[in-house]
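Need tokens for this chain, all 330 residues.
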Amino acid sequence: MKNLPAADSHLNEAEAEEVFGILLDGQTSEEEIARFLTDLSDRGETGAEIAGAARALRARLIPISGPDNAIDVCGTGGDGHHTLNVSTAVSLVVAAAGIPVAKHGNRAASSKSGAADTLEALGLDMEAAGKTAEKTLSEIGICFLFAKNHHPAMGRIQPIRQKLGRRTIFNLMGPLSNPAGVKSQLIGIARPGYVPIYAAAKAALGTKHTMIVSGDEGLDELSLAGGNEVAVVKGDSFEMQRKSASELGLPSSPVAAIRGDDAIYNAAALTALLDGNPGPYRDAVIFNAAASLIVAGTTEDWNEGADIARQSLDSGAAKDLLARWIAMAK
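Here are the structure tokens for all 330 residues:
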């Protein structure tokens, strides 16, 4: 068994890839992994370390084929706000608007209900959804890439993450390791101050068009509560922006207004959203869907993106897509 390095010394990208290869290949103990992840999180990961770790995870994943224009919409989790599943709802809205979404996700690690938990409560057979992922992505424009099916190297890591009950670098690695190899993404992270660091990692890995976003209160998505840090990453460079919901004519709402609970609760809220319920959850989904449609290249205008999202909801297209997805994943 190998010892992992002390977290007080920064790793360059190649060193990080090597260290995480050791970690993912089971060449060190669970105690070492827990110690290393905790120390690294306490110290703060660098862009080079995140990129190197993601390369190690990418090298060990089981890929699928997907449309060249497919995108992913996800958050890193670990923000402690326990909100409703915004990115899951956004994925349905955007896919119903004609953009293929290869949704990469997992069960809850530090929240009450992850994307997989909520989709399962809605009636999606997660095992069948995994087996039919390429088919549903190709035919109806959406799939769920359950992390455990595509990252076998994570098998011994997930229990350690759950035991730690806190965000670690694996929250940051997951969105950078989509099995469909998406070229464009909307990624929410839980630390506003980390947006440029994470954007540097994404730039090192390369992308067509990605937005890294974080609400000022530490929300891992675009927040209605106030301002948002946004990094627009294209190719191997990025620029920082500020964005608020008011610029789209959306009302400000506190994070508590979209507080979620367990999978049953979150699934009921998502069903109500698709049925046309107004309120902060809808507004948050529209805000984040607008950003998703921009990275997808559907529009360059936030307000137009918001209008497309509203149409996807109000026409019943997003609701119908979920029903078709559940029916296909049998």
